[in-house]
Amino acid sequence: MAAGERTLILAEGFSADPHYGKTMRGVLRYRRDDVVAILDSTRTGESDAGVPVVGDVEGGLAYGPEVAIVGVATQGGRFPPEWRDILRACIAKGLSIENGLHEMLADDSELRPLADAAGVELRDLRRPPEGLDCATGANLDVDSRIVLTVASDCAVGKMTVSLELDRAARERGLESLFVPTGQTGIAIAGWGIAVDAVVADFISGAAEQLVIEGHRRGGELLWVEGQGSLVHPAYSGVTLGLYHGSVPHVLVLCHRAGSTEIEGSPGHPIPPLRELVELHERMALPRRPARVAALALNTAGLGEREAREVVAAASDETGLPAADPVREGADALLDAVLAGLP
Amino acid sequence: MAAGERTLILAEGFSADPHYGKTMRGVLRYRRDDVVAILDSTRTGESDAGVPVVGDVEGGLAYGPEVAIVGVATQGGRFPPEWRDILRACIAKGLSIENGLHEMLADDSELRPLADAAGVELRDLRRPPEGLDCATGANLDVDSRIVLTVASDCAVGKMTVSLELDRAARERGLESLFVPTGQTGIAIAGWGIAVDAVVADFISGAAEQLVIEGHRRGGELLWVEGQGSLVHPAYSGVTLGLYHGSVPHVLVLCHRAGSTEIEGSPGHPIPPLRELVELHERMALPRRPARVAALALNTAGLGEREAREVVAAASDETGLPAADPVREGADALLDAVLAGLP
């Protein structure tokens, strides 16, 4: 999404789902002014965050969109038949499409010619840039302070925490920059690399390029969006490659209050917070030690008092500052991070 | 390399280099009978492991090769101009080419048409299979015992240790199988997936498919070839994804005797063996705990007595059985692994 581009969010069937609707939620939160409508035929006529929900592409046209963004993750990261109908309709109506799934629209033998004929763009947010390679060690020469969000699981709020901390830091006048590493972060910030989509050998190399680029863009304080979790049975490789390649000075550990098991992976427990803190510090490269400076708790769905108790308990367990930056603002976490930086 | 296929190893400039010549060394050790010549113009007329070294493709033809295998890693994993001359000459002389670099020959706009015209194959060992996806948890249902080699660094002998242990196990009549996860292992065994070349999100999914396939091929005892190292600044992501995706019951920790720094990464220390053992056990998924059953020391280059001392010291430090399986045979390590299996 270029700045100011009028956007229709495609969220068929999942606009109310916090997990599958992650991209929609992020775009609604951080690019609200550019969103004109949401497409989800299961909620036609409702509104979400003040944005009208429409039942089909035709219905969305009344709001004058220029681009449609795929706002939900489909099962397996690929487009089922009903989705292809929606995509074809967007192209036919002259909308460019922004897509963050692993399936690349610009390579699609049916959609690509249609888009070319209609003169619209197919932007694949997860497509790796040309010329990626293994990490070289140049990341250690980046003259910025680097903060990475890590977590107990996927989809607990790492991107949001990084964005909130970046915003708070900029409000204090710091030369602060959010570094996007996933499709939603890229849609929001307009640059970045989806590190989970690169050739596996190049994860750390991509992370290295991102911190170099973040410094080049003027970030003296870089908030690197974390991915996955070191204890996730499917995504831990991306997590560790991003960790080692982005060479953070400080970590912020994110956790959904009350979660004890990896979502979607029954039988895979989430270790206690104290263990997670130690594990993450232990996995830092000796050449760039990193401490967890604070805990960011996601207390969405809890009452005010319950949330306060959960945050206090997490702080007690770990001896670290803790807060829910969405509920309370990011200032306390920012203080803790700044105090922890070398 | 299909079984029995007469093979010319392309090793220009690096046939004597243990690091860059890893593929050549592996093929020479485990597919010796199929190798007819080695191409390296810097050593023309010499022989290596009893195989004649020739200066160009023309010179190799006298030995009747059917296929040429890229036996060395080039700088950056891509083909410099002098290498393209060699590849063109192979194609012109009717040789198929087997290639394990990240650069895919079958996608090359110059070489592909030449190969098609000459009727030869361009086999890219690192090309990921179609249909890879994230790990699903089906790995935990595989009814085999799974042993993964892990290590302090790249290129210390993980593949060799897995192959030697597999051979020793088969000699004892066990239904044992080597599971290849890298280009050299694939060249040797004729199947497998190069897990460092898949989409980063699919590392664990590829590892999961490999242990499922290993079981399907009759392996009751699977020796999964490890990759990289958890403490390597560039490759740790692949290492952890492979670890979690292959769900090993037991680990064998490989180490080059005397190494204290990651090769090619100055300033990145290798932690002491005792710490490495603990770190690897710590990083197992709670759902599939894994213990290090033994240490495999690479003592190449040491004298007999020095090697014995190094092995004894490693065992003392960690309290674990230790051996150099290439020097002493793999029986002691195999005993330790079998004793450690659940």
Blueprint of the fold:
The structure is a homodimer of 342-residue chains.
Chain A: E1 7-10, H1 22-30, E2 35-39, E3 47-48, E4 51-54, H2 57-61, E5 67-70, H3 81-92, E6 96-99, H4 111-118, E7 122-124, E8 145-151, H5 158-171, E9 176-179, H6 183-189, H7 203-216, E10 221-224, H8 236-246, E11 250-256, H9 273-282, E12 291-298, H10 304-318, E13 322-323, H11 325-328, H12 331-340
Parallel strand pairs in A: 1-2, 1-5, 2-4, 5-6, 6-7, 8-10, 8-11, 9-10, 11-12, 12-13
Antiparallel strand pairs in A: 3-4
Structure description:
The structure is a homodimer of 342-residue chains. By secondary structure, chain A is α/β, with parallel strands linked by helices. Helices cover 35% and strands 17% of the residues of chain A. In chain A, the strands form 2 sheets. Chain A has a 7-stranded mixed beta sheet, with helices on both faces. Chain A has a 6-stranded parallel beta sheet with strand order 9-10-8-11-12-13, with helices on both faces. In chain A, strand 1, helix 1 and strand 2 form a beta-alpha-beta unit. The model of chain A has no long low-confidence stretch (mean pLDDT 96).
Short structural summary:
Chain A is an alpha/beta fold. Chain A contains twelve helices and 13 strands.
Rounded to an integer in angstroms, the radius of gyration calculated over CA atoms of chain A is 20 Å
Helicity level of chain A: 25-40%
Shape of chain A: globular
Question: Could you name the ranges of chain A where pLDDT drops below 50 across 5 or more consecutive residues?
Answer: none
- What is the number of helical segments of chain A per DSSP (H or I, 4+ residues)? 12
Q: Find the biggest chain interface.
A: A-B, 45 and 45 residues
Major β-sheet of chain A, in short?
7 strands, mixed
- For the termini of chain A, the CA-CA separation is 35 Å
- Beta content of chain A: 15-25%
Helix and strand element order of chain A: EHEEEHEHEHEEHEHHEHEHEHEHH
Based on DSSP secondary structure assignment, what is the total number of beta strands of chain A? 13
Look at the helices and sheets of chain A and give the structural class.
alpha/beta
